[in-house]
Hints:
By secondary structure, this protein is α+β, with helices and mostly antiparallel strands. Helices cover 23% and strands 26% of the residues.
Amino acid sequence: MPPENEIDNLLKTNYPADAPGAAVIVVKDGQILHRAGYGLANLELKVPIEPETVFKVGSVTKQFTAALILMLAEECKLTLDDPIEKFLPDYPIHGHSITIEHLLTHTSGIKSYTSIPDWPFSKDCTVTEVIDGFKYKPMDFAPGTHYEYNNSAFYLLSVIIAKLSGGTYEEFLQKRIFDPLGMKSSYGYTARRIIQRRASGYEKDEAGYQNCTYISMSHPGGAGVLSSTVDDLARWDASLYTEQLLKTTSLQRAWTPYTLKDGSSTHYGYGWAIEEFAGRKWIGHGGGINGFVCIAVRIPQDHLFIAVLTNNSSAEKTPEEVAFRITMHALGMPLPEPQPVELQSAALERLTGIYEISPGDERHFALKEGKFMHRLPAYDFEEELVPLSESEFFPKGNVFYRFHFLTDEAGGVSACQVFNPYGRILDTARKTEKPLAE
């Protein structure tokens, strides 16, 4: 079966016609291999998703923010080694040296506002109010010593861009990227603006699909404010093979993983994550914001680009898994399906408990109504894990991640390692004696 038929069958299975769905594009060697919409853009009006449908793209915004910073660097309006107080003189640096590069690479140590409990996401806030909400929080770590995903950092980058461009972040983005590339369906999102073909976002609970929880778009800024289409993202990707917007040297720097002070790689450059798999470099980024999840991936060696934009934040399979499968089909290397097994409660019970990644950062594993659940308390996130054996599991909805439980010499469970789809260990969490909450 040709790859495009395999891809179409995969997408029809994952995004049925009567539910929120996805727009997808696959471009190889400059030619569209697949471009289609699946499911509904609006459940109430029964409007189908088309390739032209506009979705919020969340953190895919970050690569655009990084590109604008690199443009300003090429114009000598800043350097990546500049301390942030050069542009944000009132920002407290808590005795540290925090640079523009630290912001770009999630290594600044600044508290990410999305990790602050009770953040007022539904309230319209000024720029000053947003920054004041996190700038007085203690640093999480010394800059350059650790990688921790950080939305505050990219919000600050958009403020710096606005200051140096003499307008707003959205105006500079429009002028320097959207207009030159003809990205006519991409926007710095505002709730009141009329946007043709805009999808509605949905979440799902026990009662079924619901309109997504409201979020004021005064909060995301350069971390996640954008809306776009698969076509516009493909235009953006095509431009990255040229020097139309940025010099090749700037792009190569953006696609080089940052190295921490201990010599370890973060596998993240400037607004893009970088992985190695199947002998290729994978450059991409996911995005998630209330009611919407997406991913955009480029594999330069094969001149391949995939974007999956969805309006269902509760889909059984994540866009990351869908995009991974599409990519492997497009490369002619489809992966075998995992074969789950059934385990007795006793086998699962021995794995339950609180596992510590680092102080204050934990993974909780518990049995709930016969299901083995994984929870990240710091992010209020929970998912079901499906067993492949007594020691190996995958998250329901993303079969290419793996959870490996390790045992000590006495046969007791000692730790859990999490592997990403590219086979890289994300972290190792050591089992503690702390009791799970009832």
